[in-house]
Write a structure and sequence with these properties.
By secondary structure, the protein is an alpha+beta fold. The protein has 14 helices and ten strands.
């Protein structure tokens, strides 16, 4: 599905003027009116997995976004709406209820959009159909299947954030297959028993900005991940990010007995198979918090954090220099790592540097 808004104006749209007013330097024009009359398709480098489109029909402009867009693009959407409305109507956007673009397209709206789209995906996959993206950046018609999700430890019983998160991972890493022609998508909703998520446990984490998120697991997730673990043990290739999830099961005792030593083993395997974000951070926290069988080990904690590309890990490296975990304290090096984390908005680093 598409998320779409219509703006009426008799003015002429100019993409360059639009980008200048928007103040977004990383906007890439992928479709121009020279290719498709009265249409513009664009995306944000390093942020987008799907396109935004603007289509003109007479005096009506339709701004559209793929419902499976990245979370960054969802939060960017009100800026697009407000800027476009200002450009075409000479005033900021206001809804019929008198709300601004930022009040209209807020966190609640984002959550509802993603939930509805994941429900649609579940309906289609439940009857053996493919889920196609509406506005792909790539050529062809990329799609998701239940089998593809299963390979990453995700089932139709998984939570909405888990399904959405792994789809974004697959898009980001160009792991989504595509067809040259798109098959018709149809289903009779009244006859579909859509699998529901029943949580058996949750894991709390924090985003870069400090907001708290909860990852919920179903028993079907546990069974699928344990099956993947068995496949990995006999030589099947498994992405590191999935092996990290297996480590998470053991660390937190999700559907199985808690075994920190097994969590450490799986986090190390995840790192070995290319996870440079989640597993090193999780491993570092185990050693820093003293959860390992051998107790607290700041040397091993620092070694793990150093393998991570997570800004949180960068903050911890800064902390290690400030507090002298391994060698004499070095405030200058500590500040370098704090600034590196703060530059991408990590809340703990910003707080340490007294930045707003």
């Amino acid at each position: 599905m598409l998320q779409q808004i219509a703006i009426t104006s008799n003015l002429t749209f100019d993409f360059k003027e639009f980008t200048e007013l928007l103040g977004e330097k990383n906007l890439v024009l992928a479709i121009s009116p020279e290719e498709v009359p009265n249409a513009w398709g664009f995306y944000r480098e390093k942020c987008s997995a799907t396109l935004f489109t603007l289509e003109q029909e007479g005096e009506t402009f339709h701004l559209s976004m793929d419902s499976m867009a990245t979370y960054d693009d969802y939060t960017f959407f009100p800026y697009l709406v407000d800027t476009l409305h200002t450009l075409l109507c000479d005033r900021p956007y206001t809804s019929e209820e008198g709300k601004s673009a930022f009040q209209t397209f807020d966190e609640e709206w984002i959550s509802e959009c993603i939930s509805e789209e994941v429900a649609l995906l579940k309906c289609l996959l439940s009857v053996g159909q493919k889920y196609y993206f509406e506005l792909p950046i790539s050529d062809g018609f990329p799609y998701i299947t239940e089998n593809l999700l299963n390979q990453y430890g995700v089932t139709l019983h998984s939570s909405t954030p888990r399904i959405y998160g792994y789809i974004q991972y697959l898009l980001k890493h160009h792991m989504v297959p595509s067809d040259e022609e798109r098959e018709e998508m149809s289903y009779e909703e009244d006859y579909i028993d859509v699998p529901q998520h029943e949580s058996i446990g949750t894991v709390v984490s924090w985003q870069t900005d400090g907001s708290e998120t909860t990852e919920s697991y179903a028993m079907e997730d546990v069974e699928r991940l344990l099956a993947i673990a068995r496949d990995y043990e006999v030589g099947k290739k498994v992405p590191g990010v999935v092996l990290n999830d297996i480590g998470t099961l053991f660390e937190h005792g999700l559907g199985i007995s808690q075994e920190i030593s097994e969590a450490i083993r799986w986090y190390n395997e995840a790192i070995r198979q290319g996870d440079r974000y989640y597993a090193p951070t999780n491993l570092g926290d185990i050693y820093r918090q003293g959860k390992a069988p051998e107790g607290k080990d700041l040397t091993l904690a620092l070694a793990a954090y150093r393998q991570s590309e997570d800004p949180y890990a960068w903050f911890r490296i800064g902390q290690s220099y400030e507090e002298g975990w391994v060698e004499a304290p070095d405030l200058e090096k500590a500040m370098e790592w704090y600034h590196k984390a703060a530059k991408v908005g990590h809340h703990m680093a910003k707080k340490r540097l007294n930045l707003k």
